[in-house]
Amino acid sequence: MTAPLLEVGNLTISFGALEVVRDVNLSLADGKTLGLVGESGCGKSVTMLAIMGLLPDHVRVSGSIKLRGEELLGRPQGELTALRGKRMAMIFQDPMTSLNPVMTVGEQLGEAIAIHNRGMTRGDRQERALALLRLVAIPLPDRRLLQYPHELSGGMRQRVMIAIAMANDPELLIADEPTTALDVTVQAQIMELLQRLQAERKMGLMLISHDLGVVGDIADEVAIMYAGRICERGPVDAVFDSPHHPYTHGLLASLPQIDRTIDKLVAIPGSLPSLSARPAGCRFHPRCVHAQDICRRAEPELRTVASGAIAACHFAETAVVSERATVRA
Amino acid sequence: MADVAAPSSIRTRRLPAWLKLPVLVGIAIIVFWIVASLSIDLWPIYDPIDMVGRRLQPPSADHWFGTDALGRDVLSRTLHGARFSLMMSCAVIICAVLIGSAIGAIAGYVGGIVDGALMRLVDITLSFPPILLAMAVTAAMGPGLQNAALAMIIVWWPVYARLMRGQVLSIRSREHVEAATAAGASHARTLIKHILPLSWSPILINATMDFGQVVLLTASLSFIGLGASPPTPEWGSMISEGAIHFYQWWICSGPGVAILSVVLGFNFLGDGLRDLLDPRSK
Q1: Cα(B234)–Cα(B87) distance, integer angstroms
Q2: Is the pLDDT score of B5 beyond 60?
Q3: In Å, how far is A96's CA from the nearest CA of chain B?
Q4: What distance in Å separates the CA atoms of residue A60 and residue B91, rounded to the nearest whole number?
Q5: If 0-12 CB within 10 Å is exposed, 13-18 middle and 19+ buried, where does residue A166 land?
Q6: Which terminus of chain A is more exposed, N or C, with fewer CB under 10 A?
């Protein structure tokens, strides 16, 4: 058995005195999709940047990040540069700003290919670029090569971003909210494309999103983050069908359902605590309806719960389960 | 809406919007001086060094701009002077832009202590009044056009270093730069292919505007005797010679009008380029 594609262990990230992410554990196998879900500011993007080695030097990162068993943390930048784009690639949130506005699509694809294939001829590069555009199903690919990003629609730009990410057949693809900036109809197309590519290439896909619907559709595993920690993690069906952490439950309950008439949108009360004023004990307790004394004092550890997932809540077995029962009744 | 826009649409049908009258005048002046400086040897005019007439003659059919204290033709000397001024400005601006942008780009991209050190050097250089610094440098190295050019490069590079640093700082934080890094691009590649191509437009505008300023400073240095030495037909030294003969106004007028027109021409062109390249001024 070979080592898993990606293994993140006890990842802790601090900006000076501020601890942004603490003790995050994740793992991802080939051909699987991991969804990373959380509110803005909960640390999911920082986690992803740490995996890519893109955090600035002054940020302290500890723990371990292993790509197929090889430790990435503490490696010199030169070695990481050789890995980035080759074995792990990334798709950014906003395709409007993530492409170089003064280079044609063909040049940018050619560059992504050239960086990791020194000595490839210009003709070969162009051919490969064209093949990549076909792979991401862009209409009129040979014309797109000569166009600039501003001549393309948002969906097409995101396809180009995906083509660039796929340029060197990465083992791990990290997608940071790949559809947030797009129209709903285009979102579905892009997600379908990602799913298809992943199935064809047997890549590991790490999908960062706050769209629970998307994650529920395509992820195998899901990790819910709150205030820099993972509060629940497990197989997506287990977590979504029977959440054990009140935060997960709140997130799912706040989704309006199209087949049910409701009078009121459900929201989680309060807002994400600021980095400098994270509450003692369970980080979620000020917003939690089930909070007891122990929640204010002790920080709960992640432990296995009935659904097979792991959750960090003192009352994982009782609080949400009883609430779910009342909701259904 | 349509009838309000009608008059201007007739005027701008043939020309792009940024080519306004002043810009066209500026381009015409610059083209005239460039052509003059390149082809002056072929023109049917007097030699600029020879004494070709009686001294201190007012403008006449023979000598359109009159003659100076040694009987040389002012028009011929003015036209010949363009070669020195334009070549000088060209050399100074190109060197200052190259040196300044390289230093500014490195400072902005690397940041930290490198940035601090380079930018303090810029601050120190910029804290001197330009003409004093240029005078000091030329005086130290000895008068002459070459030394004056060197002095002016020393005066001008910090402007471009600051400009370029600002551009690089703002562009390096854009997402496409991070995306390039995530695709495995090295530092050099990121800087050269993804940052610099987006940062040249303010540099170009500034360089165009500064062109006239360099012409002016060259003339100033020559005027006080630190630039060209007689009998070179240089605008600044011509004005300096003419200043003695205050009531023979034509001796200063030729080179004076020439300097005025060059400075004005490049300012007009610079304004036009800013309209074209800077989206904020639209």
Answers
A1: 12
A2: no
A3: 9
A4: 48
A5: buried
A6: N
